[in-house]
């Protein structure tokens, strides 16, 4: 990680401690400790298993997309990608660092940047699509409860949906509209040409090298994007695996509540409310949606968990599993050496085919 990323990570951990202090300020600590030691640890283990399977299945999705063209891309490399993504998501506003961190992880394994970008973009579009579909279903299930409980959150969730929908449209345009992508890339590279370090000749030389490098990868990116979009079996597998992956993630609050002894809760309603909470978190610019995530959880689940100490404990366990667990795993994965792929991956395959 860069020095800046380390600083942001430390800041987010301090923010987490601040939120922890704020959450505990009016709660009986002895009661929280009593609730903690009396947890049903088997159900809590199921919640831990859910977040673990969420990450493992995303590794399987990466392997699914990379495997046909880079067969020596190991599952260790594939699993490393979502773990590093969790770290990138956790330390950047709107989780914007997840994609660059994944790209770095794949490049460290020796996968071509253009091919990696196409894979990650296709995977991200499928992920966003499944999230939007889940939101529609969850809105139908939980809208009446949500409307009676918290009016303002209804508008936040709809706003979050519009953002996700706009992201899908934007990514599809980038994937298929080659001239638009070229223009956007040219604008970004223009900063190197006019605002980079060094003299005018040095900046121009650096710009020309970067422009040539980007052009080659951009062409590869669009070729692979079109190829993958025509492979309907691959897309269907990706959608099914992503749906399964998110099912485990959305189930986490339900098993936490079972661990706390709330055994009469409705699985479908609790899961639907979690879908809606995730949609709200996505619109908060603070990394990890810190503050908004905790408030959203407490607001929607306070009717199910009447005890204040149990509600705070449930929120803390949920926050650890859905945010900090991935970040800590990402730190470990980021410092893990990637297995280098051998020289018969996609970009070599294409060059041989042209000869």
UniProtKB/TrEMBL annotation:
EC number(s) of the enzyme? 2.3.2.3
Kindly list the places in or outside the cell where this protein is found, as annotated in its UniProt entry: Cell membrane
Which ranges form a coiled coil? none
Q: What is its main location?
A: membrane
Q: What keywords were assigned to this record?
A: Antibiotic resistance, Cell membrane, Lipid metabolism, Membrane, Transferase, Transmembrane, Transmembrane helix
Stated membrane topology is:
Multi-pass membrane protein
Q: What class of enzyme is it?
A: transferase
Q: Which Pfam families match?
A: LPG_synthase_TM
Tell me which family the UniProt entry assigns to this protein. Belongs to the LPG synthase family.
**Reaction it catalyzes:** L-lysyl-tRNA(Lys) + a 1,2-diacyl-sn-glycero-3-phospho-(1'-sn-glycerol) = a 1,2-diacyl-sn-glycero-3-phospho-1'-(3'-O-L-lysyl)-sn-glycerol + tRNA(Lys)
According to the record, the segments passing through the membrane are: 7-24, 44-66, 124-146, 152-178, 232-252, 264-284, 321-338
Can you tell which superkingdom this protein's organism belongs to? Bacteria
Per its database record, what is this protein's job? Catalyzes the transfer of a lysyl group from L-lysyl-tRNA(Lys) to membrane-bound phosphatidylglycerol (PG), which produces lysylphosphatidylglycerol (LPG), a major component of the bacterial membrane with a positive net charge. LPG synthesis contributes to bacterial virulence as it is involved in the resistance mechanism against cationic antimicrobial peptides (CAMP) produces by the host's immune system (defensins, cathelicidins) and by the competing microorganisms.
InterPro entries for the chain? L-PG_synthase/AglD
- Descriptive protein name: Phosphatidylglycerol lysyltransferase
Keyword flag Nucleotide-binding:
no
Top-level taxonomy: Bacteria, Bacillati, Bacillota, Bacilli, Lactobacillales
Q: Which PANTHER family match?
A: INTEGRAL MEMBRANE PROTEIN (PTHR37693:SF1), PHOSPHATIDYLGLYCEROL LYSYLTRANSFERASE (PTHR37693)
**Which gene is transcribed and translated to give this protein?**
mprF
């Amino acid at each position: 990680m860069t020095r800046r990323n380390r600083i942001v990570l430390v800041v987010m951990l301090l923010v987490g401690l601040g939120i922890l202090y704020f959450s505990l300020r009016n709660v009986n600590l002895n009661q929280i400790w009593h609730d903690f030691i009396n947890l049903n640890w088997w159900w809590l283990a199921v919640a831990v298993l859910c977040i673990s399977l969420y990450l493992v299945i995303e590794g399987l999705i990466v392997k699914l997309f990379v495997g046909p063209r880079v067969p020596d891309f190991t599952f260790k490399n594939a699993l490393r990608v979502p773990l590093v993504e969790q770290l990138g998501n956790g330390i950047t506003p709107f989780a914007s660092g997840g994609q660059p961190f994944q790209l770095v992880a794949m490049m460290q394994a020796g996968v071509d940047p253009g091919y990696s970008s196409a894979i990650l973009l296709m995977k991200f579009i499928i992920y966003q699509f499944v999230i939007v579909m889940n939101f529609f279903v969850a809105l139908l299930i939980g809208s009446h409860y949500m409307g009676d409980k918290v009016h303002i959150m209804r508008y936040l969730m709809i706003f979050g949906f519009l953002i996700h929908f706009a992201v899908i449209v934007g990514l599809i345009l980038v994937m298929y509209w080659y001239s638009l992508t070229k223009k956007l890339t040219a604008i970004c590279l223009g900063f190197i040409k006019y605002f980079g370090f060094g003299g005018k000749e040095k900046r121009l030389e650096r710009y020309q090298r970067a422009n040539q490098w980007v052009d080659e990868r951009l062409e590869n990116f669009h070729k692979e994007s079109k190829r993958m979009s025509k492979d309907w079996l691959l897309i269907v597998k990706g959608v099914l695996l992503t749906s399964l992956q998110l099912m485990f993630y959305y189930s986490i609050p339900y098993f936490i509540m079972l661990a706390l002894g709330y055994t009469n809760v409705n699985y479908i309603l609790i899961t639907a409310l979690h879908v809606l909470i995730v949609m709200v978190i996505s619109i908060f610019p603070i990394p990890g949606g810190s503050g908004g995530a905790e408030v959203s959880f407490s607001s929607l689940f306070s009717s199910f968990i009447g005890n204040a100490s149990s509600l705070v404990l449930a929120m803390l366990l949920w926050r650890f599993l859905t945010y900090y667990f991935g970040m800590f795993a990402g730190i470990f994965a980021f410092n893990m050496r990637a297995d280098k792929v051998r020289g018969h991956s996609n970009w070599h395959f294409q060059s041989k085919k042209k000869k």
